[in-house]
Amino acid sequence: MKNYMLLFAAILCITIGACKKNNTPSGSGSTRVTVKLTDAPGLYDAVILSIKSVVVVTDKGEQTITVGGGPINILDFRLGKDTLLASQDIPSGTIQQIRLVLNDSGNKVVVNGTSYNLTTPSGQTSGVKLNVHDNLVAGIDYTIRLDFDAASSIVLTGNGKYILKPVIRAIPVAVSGALTGMVTPAASSPKVFAIMGTDTVGTIADATGKFYFPGLAAGTYNVNFIPVSPYLTKTVGNVVVTTGAVDDMGTVTITQ
Known about the structure:
mainly beta; Immunoglobulin-like; 2 domains; 6-stranded mixed sheet; elongated
């Protein structure tokens, strides 16, 4: 009886939209990429960057992620703090390069209360190039942290001007996992729910019996299967999802 109540609660949760997610099987081969900016300290009052976009270059091509909002004082994001630049789904693949593209104006450094314009030879056109080699796995969310070294990035010229020659590390980090598996027989056509605490994620098995949950938080789940009649409901407990991995439950048999 307790299991039926749990299943009913899961269905109700999905129906009224009270749960956080409701995903269908992923065959799109996409990865959610979030770009954040952080800073290593520099001896300035402020370093203002006006960022136009972030270009992620993979073996599938170039994907431009537009950055919203106004100029950012990167010195506000030191000692582990960061700020969100943009977030977007892009085709999964191998990252080859990241380019940070700046606007033509709005880039400044403030020294002893005086503001100076910052210019950079290529940052406003082709972008500041960062070589990165990492795999973006379909269905797993990634955060790319751009670690800006303010102390090394700003050069004072002999005529008193300041030039921006960005020294940035790009650090891609997987921040979620994924879960997959097969049900047999495929004719049971179950709805599948991954439940951890109060968080329930729903999907359905496709015509071959495959189910897939992208973007799951790491942790231990109960996975509930609610098939069509005359097949019986089933719960598989202690299913572990690992950050950065696609965990495979194997084949789950649904009985009558």
